[in-house]
Amino acid sequence: MSDWKKLCPLDEIPRLGSRVIESAHGDIAIFRLADDEVFAVHDKCPHKGGPLSQGIVSGKIVTCPLHGWKIDLQSGEAIAPDVGCTPPFSVKRVGDDVWIAL
């Protein structure tokens, strides 16, 4: 059973950027896309643990700043030819607020 927690107002996450929260699961990067859709993944690239929160967002993909791996924000899966996954988390918008299931 998921435990939904209110994170912040949507405006506190920059468009095409992210915000990091600390959790019992480790750091989680919350991303806001150009259309205000939000996604959350563990803030470590599956390759070498790079901080995905510092990567460049394009569409629904973030590029790791360390070695250029591309990670699908919906699934957490690396884009081929790379292989690996960073755990995604369920997030939702309720009005102007962002919530996460932990």
Can you characterise this structure?
There is one protein chain. The chain is mainly beta and 102 residues long. It has no helices and 10 strands. Strand 9 and strand 10 (97-101) form a beta hairpin.
Radius of gyration: 13 Å
Strand sequence of the main sheet, in spatial order?
2-3-4-8
Q: Count of DSSP E strands?
A: 10
Helix/strand class: mainly beta
Helix amount:
under 10%
* SSE pattern: EEEEEEEEEE
- Oligomeric state of the chains present here: single chain
Largest sheet: 4 strands, antiparallel
Report the mean per-residue pLDDT as an integer.
95
What order do the helices and strands come in, and which of them pair?
Elements (H helix, E strand, L loop, with lengths): L3 E6 L7 E5 L6 E5 L5 E5 L13 E3 L2 E3 L6 E3 L15 E2 L1 E4 L2 E5 L1
Antiparallel strand pairs: 1-10, 2-3, 3-4, 4-8, 5-6, 6-7, 9-10
